[in-house]
Design brief:
By secondary structure, this protein is an alpha/beta fold. It is 39% helix and 10% strand. It contains twelve helices and ten strands. A six-stranded mixed sheet has the order 2-1-3-4-5-10. It has a two-stranded parallel ribbon with strand order 6-9. Strands 7-8 form a two-stranded antiparallel sheet. α2 links the parallel β1 and β2. α3 packs parallel to α7. The radius of gyration is 19 Å and the shape is globular. The two termini are 34 Å apart. InterPro entries: GDSL (IPR001087), GDSL_esterase/lipase (IPR051238), SGNH_hydro_sf (IPR036514), SGNH_plant_lipase-like (IPR035669). It is found in: Secreted. It holds the Pfam family Lipase_GDSL. Keywords: Hydrolase, Lipid degradation, Lipid metabolism, Secreted, Signal.
Length: 369
Amino acid sequence: MGILRFMLLVSLGLVLFGLKTTVSQPQQAQVPCFFIFGDSLVDNGNNNRLISLARANYRPYGIDFPQGSTGRFTNGRTYVDALAQIFGFRTYIPPYSRIRGQALLRGANFASGAAGIRDETGDNLGAHTSMNQQVELYTSAVEQMLRYFRGNTNELQRYLSRCIFYTGMGSNDYLNNYFMPDFYSTSTTFNDKTFADSLIKDYTQQLTRLYQFGARKVVVTGVGQIGCIPYQLARYNNRNNSSGRCNEKINNAIVLFNSQVKNLVDRFNKGQLKGAKFVYLDSYKSTYDLAANGAAYGFEVVDKGCCGVGRNNGQITCLPLQTPCPDRTKYLFWDAFHPTETANILLAKSNFNSRAYSYPMSIQELANL
């Protein structure tokens, strides 16, 4: 490891130790609103009333969150909760399922556990709100917001152009679609490259739709190193009678998809969507660094869930009323799939004012445009 990269990792680790329970906030929010699209990594309650296995509105989820079990798929704050605090919002951005009217002017969280770029992704888990559906809900929200600008679309556009839009999609298109051949046919219809091509084609249309309805500052995150999450470690190593090995077949497919997402961001920034600026977050690199250098960040366990059942606490995810590990700050993963609050805060801080994992600028630079 180069000395500059080592110093960066250590400095980020030192930042983490002061962020386990608090996130410093500016006096005033740096942006007027924050809109969020994604899956269970950032869902904060939209799935609570759906008939779905992709729900987290039960203990011990939320064990370290002031409001308890809200539907967040972690022990405390999600990545976007931490980002909202860093932006200066005094309260977290609420789930769209619970807000309407003037409250929308602060933003809304449309994310849904099990959601993907493809509509059928996650159907094996039950009901959810796909990316296409999230985008349509957002267009309805824009129509609602228009009344507070007396029908003046130019004024609303100027307002929305100052907001931050976050979108994180793709994980479930692989975990709960392409690499689930018993339920989906995509792995026989496509290969790794053509599947990534298909996802990017759909994602391009979805992000363009957000642009058409006012999005100008957009953060697009790649997919993390999901071949190394406890769920995959448990399944892959049990099947291959080994231990500690990531599923590189999945990781290789993710790398291919992420490279295309980054290229998409380049195309958008070079004039395909005039007046917009996109930032790509390299979640694969950031999650790799967290796992590979866990001790530098204060983590003692990087391959097991804090709450779960079976090998790596990843064969069955966290069950209702299950007793989790006593010190969540020592774990990278909360359950079979999702990071702990501590990991989410570290990732948000490192992405916000550093280009270590963001391209072509940091989130703070995007907000200041």
